[in-house]
Amino acid sequence: MTVRSTIVEQFQEVAKEQKRKLAPLTDGLALLDSGLDSLSFAIIVARLEEVLGFDPFNAGEVVDFPLTFGDFVRLYETASATR
Amino acid sequence: MTTVGNLPGSSFYSVESSVALADLAQASTLGGRLEELRGASVVIAVQDQLTAALLLIELDGVAGRIVLCPPDLPDHHLTEVVRTAAADALVHDGSGVEPDALGAVKRIAASTPLTKTDALRRQSVETEWVLLTSGTTGAPKLVAHTLASLAGSNARAPTALEHCVWSTFYDIRRYGGLQIYLRAVLGRVSLVLSSAKEPVVDFLSRAGAIGVTHISGTPTHWRRALMSGAAQRIAPRYVRLSGEIADQGLLDNLRSVYPNARVVHAFASTEAGLAFDVEDGKAGFPANLLDRPPAGVELKVQDGTLRIRGVRNANRYLGEAAPTLVQSDGYVDTGDMVELQSGRYYFVGRKGGVINVGGLKVHPEEVEAVINTHPRVRMSLVKARKNPITGAIVVAEVVMKGDGGPAPDPGTTQTLTQEIIDSCRRALPAHKVPAMVRIVPALEVSASGKLVRPGA
User: Could you tell me which residue, B226 or B8, shows the higher pLDDT?
Assistant: First the structure.
């Protein structure tokens, strides 16, 4: 699975668990409009760390917080490539 | 504290040996050097629990102060204890005490077997009993009690009418264990001592063979006993829990394993002493207990924590920089948070243990209580996991029942973790539900029989 597809899967699973209607996941989707709350994002980030083995927010350097779904995926893809 | 006189059949039982209490009148664990310690501050730093049990009887009423050190106290803590307690003497059993660090303190080797002595033991002093409790920095705090505050009403308890043999999973040098030791000694009944090195299965077999009728431990001790498969080698009439929150799942479990026993959970702390017992089979305590507490005890809830005032309180902490033990209103703040629900107070956790999920508070213990109701769960530990979005999220480690066998296949594990998360979701608001659940073979337990919590 690619990083992107792993992320998509986690977004979908967590949305289902948290009983939230997930907006279609396009790169331009603003995360605030995704239908998910901060708790959902927190869970997604934690689960991605388990699955992918890293947390890009905790990489040591200051991280620009992703605003869109595309930003989020790029953040993880970059972190994955530089490991 | 007198134990002399006719005490037929009343003994202390340890793993290797037993001592009849009737023999103690004419015997010394101090090699006959008791008089040297009259009025002195004495630190008991022995490894062997039975030796400690005998020293307490011998020194009470003679020493001015007895400081009860748990086994394996690191040398640097022992040095600190000796200094804070202004010790005149230290009793050891030959293991691991570095003499140079202790300066002018007199060192006495405990003698086992006991030495015969003809001297009649004269009690002239109200001995101060000092227990150690772990502070948040790891250095022990010294809590000063007297026998009266430790024993409370037990000091005047009549000798048990029915045959009674006490035991405890605790080391008797900890508050919970010391309570049981005092019940046995003052009630003149036998006591089966546990041992840190003895596997639970062996302890239960030994206790069962001796015929233990009354037994006490922490909820974690009890979960391990249930997990050992040997729980039914004992047939107690009285099962007691203290030291940690007794959740409903465990209480129900114990009632089904010991259907003929009274199952009682007690609230106590080293500082506040014993406050009350609950015997109605339910976790927490009825709200009206605050208005109708047991004799000698006053209870209140303030700022969310339970506070206790009464004859069982310790006096103070020893030491110059010691914090206040008793608040200005005379109450000891236990630091245990309680919540009122439908006329009953439930313990939700330690004040310092709160997990903050995006500003919303979670007590690990309240989540554990839900997880522990799952029929396949033996025990659980809920912790904070750092999170860049909410600061922290809740995660759980779970020990399943029937462990010791081969690890379950991934399919089973996933079903179990999903079931656990689902049951949390039904019982708790979203931020309290563990984001992840991991099945583990075991959880770390402290020397005092409690689950080790991060940062505790």
Answer: B226
Q: Which residue of A has its CA nearest to B384?
A: A46
Residues carrying CATH 3.30.300.30, chain B:
354-439
Rounded distance between C-alpha atoms, residue B174 and residue B132, angstroms: 8
Q: Which residues belong to CATH 3.40.50.12780 in chain B?
A: 11-339
**What value of ipTM does the predicted structure carry?**
0.92
The answer, for A61 touching chain B at a CB cutoff of 8 Å, is no
Question: With an 8 Å Cβ cutoff, are B390 and A38 in contact?
Answer: yes
3-class SS of residue B112: coil
* Homologous superfamily (CATH) for B354-439: ANL, C-terminal domain (3.30.300.30)
The number of folded domains in chain A is: 1
Confidence class for position B423, pLDDT limits 50, 70, 90: very high
B406: preceding bond cis by omega (within 30 degrees): no
What kind of architecture, by CATH, is found in domain B11-339? 3-Layer(aba) Sandwich (3.40)
pLDDT of residue B447 exceeding 90: no
Instruction: Indicate if the pLDDT at residue B159 is higher than 60.
Output: no
Question: Which chain B residue has its CA at the smallest distance from A66's CA?
Answer: B389
Which amino acid, B426? R
pTM greater than 0.90 (yes/no) = no
Q: A-B interface: how many C-beta pairs under 8 angstroms?
A: 39
Contact B358 A38 (CB under 8 A): yes
Categorize the per-residue pLDDT at B455 as very low, low, confident or very high, splitting at 50, 70 and 90: low
- Highest mean pLDDT of the ranges B68-72, B94-98, B139-143, B340-344: B340-344
| Residue B356: closest C-alpha in chain A | A39
* Cβ neighbours of residue A12 closer than 8 Å, sequence gap 6 or more: A22
Q: What is the DSSP string of A48-65?
A: HHHHHS--GGGSSS--PP
Yes or no, beta carbons of A42 and B358 under 8 Å apart:
yes
Higher pLDDT, B160 or B247: B247
Distance CA B423, CA B441 (A): 21
Residue A32, domain CATH: 1.10.1200
Whether the per-residue pLDDT at B136 is higher than 80: the answer is no
Domain that holds residue A14: 3-81
